């Protein structure tokens, strides 16, 4: 399918159902699990409770004898009651950490629900510790608390905290923003080189020595739709956002690359030479998985902020019909290009009142429901087929080579349900 506007018009101007009520959200601290793998010289010190530590250990599956690049500075009862000076305690923990781990170049102090409740000023702590350990170690802070945010906003807060301290530059450069698995990032950089983009930087970089700088001649493209604060921080530094659909599937990837090529005035011949072969591979892979998706309906609960680009992919490239596309937050400047390419029809909702949304899902009985872990099992018990939204964040899904895998993540639950129904039917017939 082409990346042109849908015949029936897009969804950018569609009314948005805004809900504010009980939400089902996952903790923003989980972003550390992919960020600590990406930034090889960084360490994430969560200032929180034992519950925070258990969450991270469980999410990461870290063996007890491993040396991960994250830890928790445990707030004990005395800290929470104000009996101890939490700043002195934190300084001691940081000193012990940096003495034991001299390889650390970037230290993130990550706020959690407990540290926010007792109003521990981690920004002041980061400034004080930077004065102590600079220039060898850069100390930054951000909040990963799940009190008011969804779980992918942990990455957004982390990257946004890095932008103000990036060096200034006058060079015209492309900055690609959003954490990607190394193999996917390498594929992306190869594609950008092949279409003719000379200098590309990535935020986050694999190390602090990557030479990332930002200025009025910097243009940036997002790979993740949940980076609203990072986008705003870069614009405050004078950088300009290249608006584009997100690189999910063949059409999304092509449109994302095309927007960058147009920004740099690159030739159509170079673009075609670089993209024709991977486009064809991606289209074949998506078509194979889409055999199980075409004509089916899908309902998105708000979870990761990936919902709008994924709904565009499923409806435009896989032949599905979206009934409702819910997202925790909708930034029109960021996801607008994806809304433009989505056929009018689905309810577009922002925020959540989980009871009301469950009522709508039960009434519509979609073929596939994309939701968080807390809703999946109850909905499965009611006969609805579900896909865990969190899996779409932890799995490589961007760009051409992952397009078939992305479609497969959605087709697999439907195929499994079909196989189970078929097997049940044969067993009943045999009896």
Tags for this entry?
Rossmann fold, 4-stranded parallel β-sheet, alpha/beta, 6-stranded parallel β-sheet, 3 domains, about 15% strand, about 425 residues
Description:
Keywords: 4Fe-4S, ATP-binding, Bacteriochlorophyll biosynthesis, Chlorophyll biosynthesis, Iron, Iron-sulfur, Metal-binding, Nucleotide-binding, Oxidoreductase, Photosynthesis. Its cofactor is [4Fe-4S] cluster. Residues 27-382 form the Nitrogenase/oxidoreductase component domain. The protein is of the alpha/beta class and 431 residues long. It has 3 domains: 16-24 and 279-423, Nitrogenase molybdenum iron protein domain (Rossmann fold, 3-Layer(aba) Sandwich); 28-149, Nitrogenase molybdenum iron protein domain (Rossmann fold), CATH 3.40.50; 173-268, Nitrogenase molybdenum iron protein domain (Rossmann fold, 3-Layer(aba) Sandwich), CATH 3.40.50.1980. The chain is built from 17 helices and 14 strands. It has helices at 31-38, 50-60, 77-80, 86-100, 113-117, 122-133, 153-162, 182-195, 228-236, 249-263, 268-290, 307-317, 332-340, 354-364, 373-381, 391-394, 403-430, and strands spanning 16-20, 42-48, 70-74, 106-111, 138-143, 173-177, 200-203, 218-222, 240-241, 297-300, 321-327, 347-352, 368-371, 386-388. The strands form 3 sheets. A 6-stranded parallel β-sheet has the order 1-12-11-10-13-14, with helices on both faces. Strands 3-2-4-5 form a 4-stranded parallel β-sheet, sandwiched between helices. A 4-stranded parallel β-sheet has the order 7-6-8-9, with helices on both faces. It is globular.
